[in-house]
Amino acid sequence: MTVLHAQGLGKKYKRRWALTGCTLEIEAGHVSGLVGPNGAGKSTLLNIASGMLEPTTGRIEVCGGVPGSGPEQLAKVGYVAQNTPVYPGLTVEDHLRLGARLNPAWDEPLARHRIERIGLDPKQAAGKLSGGQRAQLALTLGIAKRPELLLLDEPVAALDPLARREFLQDLMEAVAEHELSVVMSSHLVTDLERVCDHLIVLVDSQVRIEGDVEELLSTHHRLTGPRRDVSSLPSDQHVVSSSHTDRQSTVLVRTEAPILDPAWTVGKLTLEDLVLEYMSSQAAARPALEVLR
User: Fold this and answer.
1) Is 0.85 topped by the overall pTM?
2) How many domains does one find in the chain?
3) What's an example of a GO molecular-function annotation for this chain (predicted)?
4) How many CB atoms lie within 10 A of CB 52?
């Protein structure tokens, strides 16, 4: 089942395009990390998927419907925006009551259990909570509505390391218990590496690489050896990037075949290495790549 399908999606603000020609398909059951440089269109994409914005061009389908098209569709999607918005003047208890009023599938026992477990005082105003506590309250509201898809836009960006770890642990517990599909944007690749099994790199509104994290890491290799023309490499080794000195070449290749040339020293990549390669100007200038499934 596909939880998000976008085709030629674009959004224009006055004279500026924040998203252009974005095509993407995300299957259910994944925790997908959405990464890319500032201005790539990540927040705009998530706002359109949640129904907060209407696209200027293209089409998008989320959980089998048009985002924001009615109460039934809105109930399928949970959304925690970048500033983990809550109402400062309302108490934690008020937020739970509001969630129950607005969401037909609201899971009251789940919401109460989470609030008690993370130690939030129901009588405390949201404006008096710490950043981590506000993020946990926003996450509780997003999960307790029992969505099919949970969208998270930089949910831990402003949190300290301990609060980030607690937030991500709670997220993974919720995913495991309630079989959520999640799309989470973040600049913190190390956090994504802890929780995501699927990766999407978005550069200039285009999907540069997408696929299962383990498969991406197992099919990308950094080759180091005597200087050579990369066009001489086997046809099944797709060159992502290359650099050269007078005597040495360093090449990042994508291939499912083993590297048999003994002249190469083959190095593994971390997820951060992979993301940075595809975000770099050299990789970004290349055509959008084939999706890895």
Assistant:
1) yes
2) 2
3) ATP hydrolysis activity
4) 15
